[in-house]
Amino acid sequence: MESDSEDLALFTNPNNWGDKYVVFDSSGERVGFFSFELENGTLEIGLGMHPELTGQGRGKSFVEAGLGFAAERYDPDGFSLAVATFNERAISVYEEVGFERRETLMQETNGGEYEFFHMTRSRSLE
Q: Edge-to-edge strand order for the sheet containing 42-49?
């Protein structure tokens, strides 16, 4: 993150946090974060899980909890997110909770340019 000064400023300066939330488990340990930005009825989600907790089967419940919170707080029509195309584990989790790949785009982050999938899902899966 230090190679991307904008990302670093976003995470280190509380004035930039806006609709960003840190997630803690029942014992008070930090699990990850969510960020939300509502635009034209669609809630853009940013999220990350603590690296030591990934790969343990917790991703689906983490994402579902964030979506539930966001649905109550923001009342969106749907959700969207962007994920690096190489992040197969995250993509699998997002598809498991109902997100679908829409398009591929190039995005500058962490000092480089990477390919990302734009994914969307409706508010409910019904």
A: 20-24, 30-39, 42-49, 78-84, 112-122, 100-109
Give the Cα separation of 24 and 88 in Å (integer): 25
pLDDT along the chain (126 residues), means of 10: 50 60 84 92 93 90 94 96 94 97 89 92 80
Residues in Cβ contact with 28 at an 8 Å cutoff, skipping those fewer than 6 apart: none
Contact (CB, 8 A) for 118 and 99 = no
Domain spans, the chain: 15-122
pTM: 0.81
Cβ neighbours, 10 Å, residue 21: 16
Residue pair 77/40 in contact by the 8 Å Cβ criterion: no
CATH of the domain spanning 15-122, picked from 3.40.50.800, 3.30.200.20, 3.40.630.30, 3.40.50.2300: 3.40.630.30
